[in-house]
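Response to reviewer comment R2.3. The reviewers asked that we include at least one raw input/output pair. We reproduce the pair for Lecithin:cholesterol acyltransferase here without editing.
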Amino acid sequence: MLGLVYNRAAQTHGPDRNPVIVIPGILGSRLKDPADGRLVWGAFDHDYIRPNDPEGARLIALPMGEGRLRDSVSRLEVDGSLDTVDVSIFYLPLRLGAYVNILQTLGVGGYRDEQFAEAGTVDYGTDHYTCFQFAYDWRRDNVESAHALLDFIAEKRREVQAHYERDYGIVDADVKFDIVAHSMGGLLTRYALRYGHADLPEDGSLPELTWAGAEHVERVILVGTPNAGSVEALTQLRRGAELPFFWPDYPPALLGTMPSIYQLLPRPRHGVYRDAETGAWIDRIYEASYWEERGWGLFDPEEDKVLSWLLPEASGRAERLAVAREHVAKCLARAEQFHAALDRPAARPEGMSLHLFTADSRKTDAAVSIDHENGDVRVATTHVGDGTVLRSSALMDERLDGDWGPRLRSPIDWSGVMFIFSNHIGLTKSEAFSDNVLYLLLEQPGRVVSD
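Raw output as returned:
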């Protein structure tokens, strides 16, 4: 049915139609070990890399050490976006859809992506190419990934300009992109747009908000983005990630090496963390000492075996804890600074629209109760969302309990918001999602490009 609606628009190609960049969320890019070519993340057959043995844990974890987080050197390489997950049960191959739903929606609109056209995952036709997948190392600091996104945009812009010059005779065309970003991909997108290549200053202050990264972007569509964080980030750093189906569990010490997960934590000012005994709200979530007192993540005594795998050169637990202490402090400080940079109120730059697709039909964890003695984390309250991200988090709703009003108050200057009755992953499977995304990309009035 959508093909009938958008068929003519999908066949109308040219410089007036922006190329699209699709940005996946956490876990949405394949990671490969160049030493032997094996996928460390993205394929689960009989020979996959396991997180619960020393070699596998060291490969999957982000190396810890002195210096800045960006100085951490991992031997893994990004090996493209994860449109589907290759799995094997009893040596029988299966393919599970991941971001193929977004690609299929764009395929209806006539967008063709070179990465997956050859694989045959999506039938894009033969006459269009303007869909690009931005793959990144989702374990790393989101600011690093934001800078990589800007480099990617610059590279693809040169490619599209060459195409326009060859096919349309337009020299140095003013190419702009539309962006569709899912989940955590929306966070790094927002940072890139606001701050360009500026880093978070080492003194803890915030960079100048210049919108430098928005120069070559016209439409931005965020899908299920946890703009105010997700309780799931804390529970996974506490208990590990219990992935669905038959995938292996990822222990909390391994996840605790990844700066991006700390950057998914909810904001303390939103009343998310509560002391189980006193009921008082906790605002120490960015303090490494608080994590050590609770025995969370890298500090969990039961995780010392995993920590010894990750730090085989350390002489004992005391030395391992010293490394962990420095790493967690860096991750939490970076997360607090990253949150402050994204939470700064700012009007959109002229010529750029910002749209949100989110859900409010699933019970979603909203606040946790923390046991002061053993550090246990239990869900205290739930509210509406997509099962992973609260409605209020996606909106970045700042109407706190003591300062509530009937109108949304958010530091994000939304152009439009669409609510879908679905869950976090199912958002992209919805026909309402596909219909409205195609309208925004293909039919919503925008700038007119002429030679």
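The first strand starts at residue 20 and ends at 23. DSSP finds 14 helices and 15 strands in the chain. Further pairs are available on request from the corresponding author.
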